[in-house]
Amino acid sequence: MTKNVIGLVAHVWKPGAADLVHKLHDEFSRSGASLCIESKTAALNGEESGLSTAEVAVESDLLLVLGGDGTILQLHHDMGDNLKPVFGINLGSLGFLTCASSNDWEEAVRAVLDETYILTNRSRLSVEVEREGKVIARRNGLNDAVISRGSLSRLIKLETRVNGEDLTNYNADGLIVSTPTGSTAYSLAAGGPILLPNSGAFVVTPICPHVLTNRSLIVPDDSIIEVTPCRGQDSVFLTVDGQELLSLAGEDRVTIRRSEHALPLAMLPGTSFLHVLREKLKWSGAAI
Q1: Contact 253, 231 (CB under 8 A)
Q2: How far is CA 262 from the centre of its chain?
Q3: Which residues contact 39 (CB under 8 A, 6 or more apart)?
Q4: 110: which of 190, 201, 231, 279 is 20 to 30 A away, CA to CA?
Q5: Which residues are known catalytic residues?
Q6: CATH code that applies to domain 125-258
Q7: DSSP code at position 179
Q8: Which fold, 5-122+262-280?
């Protein structure tokens, strides 16, 4: 039986990254595991690999990622269409996407070697931008798609439709369409609800709407959401997972739907999303 190949990718500028890479490399080597290491990560251990993150994703059966939630989001975009299970170790406190802290690295190694980790399939967004009848951009998102003025704090008017039916014209600082995974990110900060990973829904959340009755809307994740900046508006941008800014012209149509492929995200055995919520949001039940 062929052994699984474990890909190792670290946020090399994070404090403690080099020390943890050393420990993981030694532990996996002692166990006879097959490692595939990204070039900057390998350099932390005094080695050379010459492999990009995308190349590591192709060669590996599982990706062990050291960093934070932002590191996993970047990895997701670097992987492209080569989606592999992702096991995140946070170089700090527990994250929403990472499943273990750096203090629990030995437990993480054992879960990877014994394959006792639990995978949850995280739905993703497929985003298309259409201009004058032609698709000019395609993006995939794990967290969210955001249409806004960018750094300018000015209202924007956005025509929004769901499954071909008018929803409303939002007059707001922007609009967020998020997956359940992204519901704990920008959407939550903008007043949106938290969804469990298996909710089968997306959240449409206006950012600081001018009309106070414009609230977050939960829609089934088989919905097709269309957002169009009204004519005559400039400096309108689309970002997917906080990556590159894509400039939109008036009457460009942004179509957002569920991607055909989900991202398998690992959790330690005995851990649940509700446990992560309690830890991250400090829901102790005690009086503050």
Answers
A1: no
A2: 11
A3: 48, 49, 50, 51, 52
A4: 279
A5: 69
A6: 2.60.200.30
A7: -
A8: Rossmann fold (3.40.50)
